[in-house]
Amino acid sequence: MVAVGNYALIAGQDARVDVLVLTRDVSWGQQIGEGDLGVAKAVPGQPLASIPASERAGVVGQVARSTLPAGSVLAPGQLSAQPVPGPGERLVGLPVRPGHLPARGLAAGDLVQVSPVATGTGTDTGLAPAAVEPFRARVLGVGLPDSSGVVTVDVVVGADAAAAATSAAAGQVVLVQLGPGA
Question: Which parts of the sequence belong to the SAF domain (predicted)?
Answer without folding.
Answer: 17-80
